[in-house]
């Protein structure tokens, strides 16, 4: 019999904010803040892959680093496996580290050039276990086998490996302590196209083998479509849309998600000829001085007066589909679900109040 028990939330993020202070003047007084992440909320189910996409500078990597407390969040909660890591004391956080790890974007910069492969992979074991040398080396070999590296390479240095091999070393290091949750911060961005698919397939195989949960951060929407179960679209520090993968790619709801997905390459020439590319005008506003109201209002082709005054809240407008857009919230309070449906029809038809 199949187990009908629903999957539990391994990660629960509520109103996460990450603001970096700005200092200016001769006395270096604080004059403002860069709102890199400004009120982000989402859950990740155990064993799930949540894709996080958006333009460069929208706050994707900052979210990933704040999730595992490489940055101390300005506000909000990050509950991982029942504990709010945003409030943990240093020693408690250290004990929590083995179950949450990160694979970094640049495999060259994230590996110590003075350490051999075996030293790099065993470093987490040195910090968090009391194993002997033989036991550590056995674990290193086990991890090398898991990520497809030849055991004979154990005493080589990072510069002796290709980009794809260096990323495999980073993945092996992240797996050393048997984590439950891994943040993959654009792990394929620095790799050749021919190697990207190999690394993504490796991540899928490891997830199935070890029951891993991923936050997969990327600007490559094609790879996210291949790997993710659900996708969160970020813009200027906030989530614009959070939807199941297939639903998002078939029919994006938020105008920004619609524009972003219109830029994805379509291998079918017939579909590519029919698709309309949406070109957004203007530049992304500065996170140090975001616009009033909706952060996308300065570039949105469907903007209206309310967008420039009131920031929209992320709300469920269809089963499992969450959108932060006034087009789906107009008259909802007054008219109930019918009003939301009418707003959705106006959005699809390009009609605005």
Question: What can you tell me about this protein's structure?
Answer:
The chain contains twelve helices and twelve strands. It has 353 residues and is α/β, with parallel strands linked by helices. The strands form two sheets. An eight-stranded mixed β-sheet has the order 6-7-8-3-9-10-12-11, with helices on both faces. Strand 7 (181-185), helix 6 and strand 8 form a beta-alpha-beta unit. Helix 3 crosses helix 4 (133-147). The longest helix is centred in the middle third of the chain and has 18 residues, at 193-210. The relative contact order is 0.12. Mean pLDDT is 87; it is low at 331-353.
Strand ordering within the main sheet:
6-7-8-3-9-10-12-11
Helix content: 25-40%
Structural class: alpha/beta
Q: What's the overall geometry?
A: globular
**Uncertain spans, ≥5 residues at pLDDT below 50?**
331-353
Count the E strands.
12
Question: How many strands, what sense, and barrel or not for the largest sheet?
Answer: 8 strands, mixed
User: Could you give the order of the helices and strands?
Assistant: EEEHEEHEHHHEHEHEEHHHEEHH
Put simply, the count of helices is: 12
Strand content: 15-25%
Gyration radius from CA atoms, angstroms: 22 Å
Distance between the termini: 53 Å
The overall pLDDT, averaged over residues, is: 87
What is this structure's SSE topology?
Blueprint: E1 9-24, E2 29-45, E3 49-53, H1 60-67, E4 75-80, E5 83-84, H2 90-96, E6 100-103, H3 117-128, H4 133-147, H5 163-175, E7 181-185, H6 193-210, E8 213-217, H7 221-227, E9 230-235, E10 238-244, H8 245-250, H9 255-261, H10 269-274, E11 315-318, E12 321-323, H11 332-335, H12 337-349
Parallel strand pairs: 3-8, 3-9, 6-7, 7-8
Antiparallel strand pairs: 1-2, 1-4, 4-5, 9-10, 10-12, 11-12
Helix pairs in contact: 3-4, 3-5, 4-5, 5-6
């Amino acid at each position: 019999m199949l187990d009908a028990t629903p999957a539990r939330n391994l990660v629960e993020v509520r109103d996460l904010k990450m603001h970096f202070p700005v200092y200016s003047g001769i006395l270096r007084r604080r004059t403002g803040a860069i709102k890199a992440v400004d009120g982000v909320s989402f859950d990740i189910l155990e064993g799930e892959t949540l894709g996080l996409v958006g333009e460069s500078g929208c706050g994707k990597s900052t979210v990933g680093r704040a999730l595992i407390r490489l940055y101390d969040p300005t506000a909000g909660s990050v509950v991982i496996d029942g504990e709010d890591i945003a409030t943990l004391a240093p020693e408690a956080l250290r004990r929590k580290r083995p179950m949450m790890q990160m694979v970094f974007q640049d495999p060259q910069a994230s590996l110590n050039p003075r350490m051999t492969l075996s030293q790099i992979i065993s470093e987490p074991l040195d910090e968090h276990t009391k194993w002997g040398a033989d036991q550590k080396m056995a674990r290193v070999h086990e991890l090398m086998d898991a990520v497809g590296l030849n055991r004979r390479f154990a005493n080589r240095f990072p510069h002796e490996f290709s980009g794809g091999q260096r990323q495999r070393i980073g993945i092996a290091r992240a797996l050393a302590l048997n984590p439950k949750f891994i943040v993959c911060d654009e792990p394929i961005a620095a790799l050749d196209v021919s190697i990207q698919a190999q690394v993504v397939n490796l991540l899928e195989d490891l997830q199935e083998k070890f029951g891993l949960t991923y936050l997969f951060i990327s600007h490559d929407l094609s790879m996210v479509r291949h790997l993710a179960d659900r996708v969160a679209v970020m813009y200027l520090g906030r989530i614009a849309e959070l939807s199941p993968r297939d639903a998002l790619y078939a029919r994006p709801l938020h105008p920004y998600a619609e524009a972003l997905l219109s830029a994805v390459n379509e291998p079918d020439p017939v579909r590519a000829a029919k698709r309309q590319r949406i070109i957004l005008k203007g530049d992304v506003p500065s996170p140090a001085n975001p616009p009033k109201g909706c952060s996308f209002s300065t570039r949105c082709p469907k903007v209206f007066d309310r967008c420039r005054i009131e920031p929209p809240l992320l709300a469920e407008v269809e089963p499992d589909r969450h959108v932060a857009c006034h087009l789906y919230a107009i008259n909802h309070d007054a008219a109930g679900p019918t009003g939301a449906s009418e707003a959705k029809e106006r959005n699809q038809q390009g009609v605005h109040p």
